[in-house]
Here is the input.
Amino acid sequence: MNRFYIADTGLFVAMGQPSNSRYQAVRRFARQNDVTFVLPERVYEELTVDDPDVEDVPVDAAIDEGWAMVATPLEFSEPIVSRVMDGIQRYIANADDRPADEVERADAALAALAAQELSMGAATEVYIYTTDIAAGEGAETVLASEGYGDSVTFVNGFRFIEDLRSTGH
Here is the structure.
């Protein structure tokens, strides 16, 4: 069984800086469970800023420490990747009552990355850690329509961090 862990912008924002207990709890979880959180390129771009006043970006520290990495680019030439990307944007748009073209592409990239990994056989189980409920539920729904319902789990990023902190992990 090959597990794949995808993280969104909100998870890293909620963790804060490496000195923060939330960040340390997630790092400890990743190390103890041999987990590497994979970020779609769009998520990484949201987390990094081109600002000379910002020296230490928490996601870069996680990458340097080996428990996070940036995914290879999405293969939009693969029909499932494009279908899932479009499906997620429609799902979130309906959930948030806004036009699909206003939905952040990074949110849709979470499920598109899951679809890519599952369809290539690189993963048999995917866990999507996001603080965006619509993106997480949308990922489960759209990927289930592609035949991956038993292979995808949405993990609420806020609850995940709180559970780690309350159990001391």
The helical segments are 9-15, 21-32, 41-47, 58-65, 79-96, 105-120, 133-145, 157-167. The longest helix spans residues 79-96. The radius of gyration is 15 Å. Residues 80 and 119 are 8 Å apart (CA to CA).
